[in-house]
Specification:
The complex is a heterotrimer of chains A (210), B (86) and C (973). Chain A is mainly beta and 210 residues long. Chain A is 13% helix and 35% strand. Chain A is built from 3 helices and 13 strands, in the order βββββββββαβββαβα. Chain B contains 1 helix and 6 strands, in the order E-E-E-H-E-E-E. Chain B has one helix at 36-44, and strands at residues 4-7, 11-14, 19-23, 52-58, 66-72, 77-84. Classes of the chains: A mainly beta (210), B mainly beta (86), C alpha+beta (973).
Chain lengths: 210, 86, 973
């Protein structure tokens, strides 16, 4: 039934310019007046998986080797795989066509469990500094890397993908229920830097540029 | 506010990201021959040392691991390298 | 308006840019760069406020806000430190604690009443008889105190917060601090430098004397500041007061925003690996009669008024000082046009020869071993009497300014609040910091250094020490930095506490609290003989200046008065905040962070009245009728829908999944069949019930289970905690937010559901306690259970969060013909109470165990080998009949329900009401209560005692449960 709609918990107060219907989601590709950055992108429709097992070392999701050390991430073939701890990895599908979720019990589809956002642009760390004491600028970490900790007081998974000037950016997940308050907090913190909502295209272009 | 805990997964973080899990007391006693007294001792009796103790912490806002650290209860500072559980 | 210098290199003002402000109802002008205090000074204001107790006139004294002398009300905000607050256009400035004006205060006579107010007079006089206190308090509060805050006052401005991390944090942007920052930054470290004033430079900045090779101190400050600003890895926060330092080098500060910033003030919380404290010194006040009369000011204050703000402090200035900065100020102020009839220097010798020569060149008389003993002038300085320290000779000199300064006090606050000790050092006459905390270093003037090159070298050394802490430099670097110090002069000799003999009746050791030397003597004579006790008895150091004025004079004077041979006495304990701070800045941005369900917007549109329940926002009612009558009746008679999405939902899988469940749940879960719903509970180690929910077997070692809303956040932590020694391999996934929950309940629920789904929903096809998975419209995945929490035919549909809105609307549409309605949390609460279904936390409290609430049937007593949490305690509790039991009760004579939490009493408290309501389904008031065991038999009469019932009890009787549909037919139909 094509009139059944899936809703993102994120709603920006701006007018969409281009929308694509994808697997019952209305994915906004572009908004009016996105500006020159920094940008906040809603990625709630992008698939996320939890992979959890005592034998993580034998798993190769989508043929990709999971990083050995917790806190490390790998971006490959459009997948971002983050080692969370000894037994757990999160997998974000950031680009490319729809994927089949592996039919093994160790995988759980957690797309719906979290809100998924990207913050892109040079001032991203100045924005984050207002909301979190997590050290995104730690020089001993190489991008992409995962930080798990409080962001605006809510436990989050945050993957810093780049710290290279305008290309700087990160993706963030937290419990889906916090979507509205989290977006409000980020928008408020980013106001002084000109943070604006952007569509998925902006995100895809950015990922491709990395 | 100032307390830091070193999580074996996430590194040194603010104390408020963690939940305290009590002193390290070893595994749960066997059900066999368990008396109410010995059970109560395990659950409720603590050493409460003024000095370094091994204790459990859970990284609630972070990686979700339980682990132990050694903390000097008189200074609130960690000692040595904590060992990881998971 | 006074004329201002505009040619000095050290100026921070722009005299061409005038800024209007209102003071006492009239418009005045300051200039750009002025503080409120200097703008007022430029307009001839000398008396800024009246003191707390005696209403003595008070004026500009230190320039860094160490006392309440110049606190004023600005734009309705009281107690603003005008010395450190920059003037902004349109500010409305008012005086505080005056009846009339600061100049002519009708309460000024109180100054003569000091004999009636000795130290501790509140304690001594105001308690007998006790009833005088409320009256006295009102009068005292009218007369005493500083600013007044209107209850309606709303703090103007924007308040923000940031949480930066760095390797090295340097507190203090003077020469030592800048050198420390540069040294650490050179080693590649991330450095944060915070400075209290709006610019870097410290005490170099306002001085035009020679630093080295004809370069002035000011030029050196500018040079260093440029270097710092050009270093990428040094982040500078100016106009940022350090307010606290804590364990593990957590540093907090408050930054005042500039015109360019998006904030008025912001809270900065810095986590640093290593810290350098280079906060320098303030001046130690000189003690003499009327030592705080307007016109008396410290040397740095006088010098900065001229050099920084272009204001000559007065026409004629007498100096009574104890250090070279005082001489330096005299030379500078003389050259700017001040007449200096005399300088009294406490020191017999030790003056910088070049300064002595400069004074001689200018024919300024310098009296060594002299000191001021009394200032004359009712409201402002008119003349001063000076004497030789031994009191043998004296002289009275006319003047309008007295520059008075006894010596220096190191600003050790940042070290001391982080547990450093202090030790008296006779050479510097300082209480020097010792036993510094781990990875914390001190540098610069606060160590007693006065030589400019030593100050810088000590800063450099501290920067290297900090880099060493961060493992970013070698031991050789450290040795080199230490060696550089050796060739330079060490700490300077400090001036001892010197006072000419006076009674001290009007010699103030603490300005904020009007504490005189006499008061200190009174305290000591009463046995309060150490600073901590004197502080509390006399008030010295309790004021908003955070003991900036009495700081080290108090212990020094205490030791001297008691003629203690060795100064073991310490200054009073310093605590954060180190400077007075706005609560608005502490509050920061304060974002609300609460969870919303997937159909939050629909629930609001339908008129839901929301309440915060734990981390969630939930619709509690759907009308202003808080009994929820309509909602309840519609579920009982028809069909309703509840948004139950907040329910905790988890998947557990992996080889040891069943083991883990068996550990925490009291039931035997090895017996659950696929397609069935198993209701069970978790206890803690005391057998007290903490959670209930259902478990569904999805496959081998693969389960889906629910928890109560409030427990969801702790479930993974709980299960992992109780299995932490077992090395079990199982995986837990929190799906609470992933799944929305629709509770479709009421006799017509089946009729609604069958219109939407394709599966057989008949009682045979989908029976009570069964579980089904299916797709709605071939698209929406649903996990469905038949439960009966509200006591009616009921379906609980768990649906992917993004699809929930679609499914909800489909059911709503299908239910229209049956007049489907929302019901909220309160309706659900009543419905389930009528069925005596418990909600943990309502029908249980912390001490309530599984047996107390009659759920012992969930406990699989034969299940062994799993070390199940709580069963050891339950086995013990079985024998105990003194425990509270959960019972149902009805009210007598059609009476109303008691309030939740009402007590059940006879001659003592025997229990309490958990939930009670006037039931519409039963037409009578019913409820559940926890009562002592002997009162739990059916037929027992219960007496209820409510808050403020004035002894009027209401009565009920223990009855059989449940109240509604005892056979349970309705939920199984």
């Amino acid at each position: 039934m094509k009139d059944i709609k899936r809703y993102s918990p994120v709603e920006f107060k701006v007018t969409p310019l281009k929308i694509e219907n994808r697997d019952h989601w209305d994915v906004v590709l572009e908004y009016h007046n996105e500006g020159d950055g920094p940008w906040l992108v809603d990625l709630c429709h992008r698939p996320r998986l939890d992979l959890q097992t005592g034998h993580l070392n034998v798993k190769k999701p989508f043929g990709i080797t999971i990083p050995a050390i917790p806190g490390q991430s790998v971006l490959e073939k459009g997948f971002l795989i983050n080692r969370m701890n000894r037994i757990q990895s999160s997998i974000y599908h950031l680009g490319g066509d729809a994927v089949e979720i592996p039919n093994e019990t160790e995988y759980t589809d957690v797309t719906e469990a979290t809100v998924f956002l990207a913050i892109i642009g040079a001032p991203v760390f100045a924005i984050c500094e207002k909301l979190s004491s997590l050290d995104f600028r730690d020089k001993t970490r190489e991008t992409p890397f995962l930080l798990q900790g409080p962001f605006s007081h809510v436990p989050c998974q945050i993957v810093t993908l780049s710290r290279d000037g305008e290309k700087s950016g990160m993706v963030l997940t937290c419990s889906r229920g916090y979507a509205k308050d989290m977006v409000d907090a980020i928008v408020h913190a980013g106001e002084e830097f000109g943070l604006k909502p952007a569509g998925e295209k902006r995100f895809s272009d950015w990922i491709d540029s990395l | 506010m100032a307390l830091t805990i070193t999580c074996p997964i996430c590194g040194k973080r603010n104390g408020y990201e963690f939940r305290y899990g009590g002193e390290e007391k070893g595994p749960r006693p066997d059900e066999k021959d368990l008396t109410p007294e010995s059970w109560c001792d395990y659950v409720h009796m603590n050493k409460c040392v003024a000095g370094v103790q091994q204790e459990w912490w859970f990284h609630r806002d972070g990686c979700g691991s339980w682990f132990t650290i050694f903390r000097d209860t008189t200074t609130n500072l960690e000692k040595e390298t904590p060992e990881a559980q998971e | 308006m006074m004329s201002r210098f505009n040619h000095l290199p050290t100026l921070k003002i722009d005299t061409s840019d005038k800024i209007p402000f209102t003071y006492r109802g009239k418009t005045y002008y300051g200039t750009k760069g002025d503080t409120v205090a200097t703008a007022l000074y430029a307009n001839g204001v000398r008396i800024y406020a009246r003191s707390l107790k005696y209403h003595r006139p008070r004026g500009l004294y230190s320039m860094d806000g160490e006392c309440s002398n110049t606190m004023m009300e600005i734009n309705g905000t009281p107690n603003v430190r005008t010395e450190t607050t920059l003037l902004k256009p349109g500010m409305v400035i008012k005086e505080q604690n005056v009846k009339g004006s600061a100049k002519n205060d009708m309460l000024g006579f109180l100054d003569k009443m000091d004999w009636a107010m000795p130290a501790g007079f509140y304690y001594d006089t105001m308690h007998k008889p006790a009833k005088i206190w409320p009256v006295a308090m009102k009068q005292i509060r009218k007369a005493a105190g500083i600013g007044k805050l209107s209850p309606d006052h709303h703090m103007p401005g924007k308040y923000d917060e940031i949480y930066p991390t760095c390797d090295v944090c340097v507190i203090g942007g003077g020469p030592a601090g800048m050198k420390a920052a540069l040294a650490a930054a050179e080693k590649g470290l991330r450095v944060i430098l915070i400075e209290n004033r709006p610019w870097l430079g410290g005490h170099f900045d306002y001085r035009t004397t020679e630093y080295v090779n004809r370069q002035t101190h000011h030029d050196r400050a500018v040079q260093l500041a440029k270097e710092v600003e050009n270093t990428d890895n040094i982040r500078v926060f100016t106009h940022t007061a350090n307010v606290g330092t804590y364990n593990n080098n957590l540093i907090t500060g408050f930054q005042v925003g500039t015109e360019k910033d998006s904030f008025t003030e912001r809270y900065i919380e810095i986590r640093a690996n290593s810290v350098v404290v280079a906060t320098g010194c303030i001046e130690r006040p000189l003690l003499f009669e009327n030592n705080e009369r307007p016109g008396v000011m410290q040397a740095g204050c006088a010098l900065r008024l001229a050099n920084t703000y272009g204001l000559l402090p007065g026409k004629t200035g007498v100096f009574s000082i104890g250090h070279d900065l005082g001489l330096e100020a005299a030379v500078a102020l003389h050259d700017l046009g001040m007449t200096i009839p005399m300088i009294a220097d406490i020191r017999q010798d030790g003056q910088d020869p070049s300064l002595v020569k400069a004074l001689a060149d200018r024919k300024i008389p310098l009296q060594r071993g002299w000191v001021a003993i009394e200032v004359h002038g009712k409201k402002q300085v008119q003349k001063v009497t000076l004497k030789s320290v031994d009191g043998a000779v004296g002289k009275t000199v006319d003047c309008d300014v007295l520059v008075a300064s006894a010596g220096f006090t190191p600003l050790t606050g940042p070290l001391v609040v982080n547990q450093a000790k202090q030790k008296y050092d006779p050479h510097t006459n300082f209480f020097l910091p010792t036993d510094l905390p781990r990875k914390m270093h001190a540098a610069g003037r606060l160590l007693g250094f006065e030589n400019s090159r030593t100050i810088e070298a000590s800063g450099h050394l501290a920067g290297i020490q900090a880099a060493y802490d961060c493992e970013s430099c070698s031991i050789a670097d450290l040795g080199e930095a230490k060696k550089a110090m050796e060739s330079l002069p060490g700490p300077a000799r400090g001036t001892k506490l010197v006072m000419a003999p006076v009674k001290g009746r009007k010699t103030f050791i603490c300005f904020d609290e009007d504490t005189s030397i006499k008061n200190i003597k009174q305290s000591i004579d009463k046995g309060f003989d150490v600073p901590e006790l004197i502080k509390r008895f006399s008030g010295a150091g309790l004021g908003p200046g955070q003991a900036g004025i009495p700081g080290h004079n108090l212990p020094l004077f205490t030791a001297r008065y008691q003629a203690l041979p060795d100064i073991k006495i310490r200054p009073t304990t310093v605590r954060p905040p180190l400077v007075p701070t706005l609560i608005a800045t502490y509050a920061g941005t304060n974002h609300t962070m609460l969870k919303r369900t997937p159909i939050d917007d629909l629930q609001r549109k339908d008129g839901g009245i929301f309440r915060n329940i734990g981390v969630w926002q939930r619709a509690r009612y759907f009308s202003r009728d808080f009994t929820a009558k309509k909602e309840i009746e519609n579920v009982r008679n028809n069909v309703g829908m509840l948004d139950g999405s907040t329910l905790g939902k988890f998947r557990i899988h992996g080889p040891d999944a069943l083991n883990a469940l068996q550990r925490v749940y009291v039931s035997d879960l090895s017996k659950i069949k696929e397609g069935r719903v198993k209701y069970t509970a978790m206890c803690n180690d005391d057998g007290c019930v903490i959670d209930d929910g259902v478990v569904i077997k999805l496959g081998e070692n693969d389960y889906y289970f629910s928890t109560s809303t409030g427990r969801a956040g702790q479930t993974i932590e709980w299960i992992r905690y109780h299995t932490r020694y077992d090395n079990w391999d199982f995986s837990l996934v929190n799906l609470t937010d992933a799944m929305g929950v629709i509770n479709l309940s009421g006799p017509n629920a089946r009729k609604v559901l069958e219109k939407v789904v394709d599966i057989d929903v008949s009682n045979e096809g989908f029976g009570f306690s069964e579980y089904k998975e299916f797709l709605v419209a071939d698209t929406i995945p649903v996990k469905a259970m038949r439960l009966g929490f509200v006591g009616e035919l009921s379906y609980e549909l768990h649906v992917s969060a993004s699809y929930m809105k679609a499914l909800w609307l489909m059911l709503w549409e299908a239910g229209k013909e049956f007049k489907i309605q929302n019901f909220g949390v309160e309706a659900q609460n009543v419905l389930r109470m009528e069925k005596c279904h418990v909600i943990l936390g309502q029908e249980s409290e912390q001490r309530t165990n599984l047996l107390d609430i009659g759920m012992g049937f969930l406990w699989a007593r034969k299940k062994t080998g799993y070390k199940t949490v709580g069963v050891a305690a339950l086995a013990q509790a079985q024998q105990d009949n003194t425990r509270l039991k959960l019972v149902g009760f009805k009210m007598e004579n059609n009476g109303r329900a008691p309030r939740d939490g009402a007590l059940i009493v006879d001659d003592r408290i025997r229990g309490h009401v958990c939930t009670a309501r006037n039931s519409f389904s039963l037409n009578e008031a019913v409820g559940m209560a926890l009562v002592e065991g002997d009162m739990s038999q059916v037929g027992t009469r219960l007496a209820f005692y409510e808050d403020e019932c004035n002894g009027e009890l209401i009565y009920g009787t223990v009855v059989e449960t449940p109240f509604y549909d005892p056979s349970g037919q309705r939920m199984k139909m």
